[in-house]
Request: fold
Amino acid sequence: MDDATVQEFLRAAIWEIAVEDCAVLVGIDATPRDAAKREISKRLAERLKAEFEIVYDPAFYHGRSGTGPLGPRR
Reply:
């Protein structure tokens, strides 16, 4: 599966988030804003897991070692 498929899925899922939920994200009070971020993130993660199989593939991890198919990050 290519990145474009996942990106399109997320684009559609993000547009389905209720305006009321998004409005909380721009609020001054951090408590409801952070709660909304957590809730929206959880819902997106649940939808991703329901649609796609999440696999561990260290070949694509560019963490501290900088290894992977693209070589070290500079």
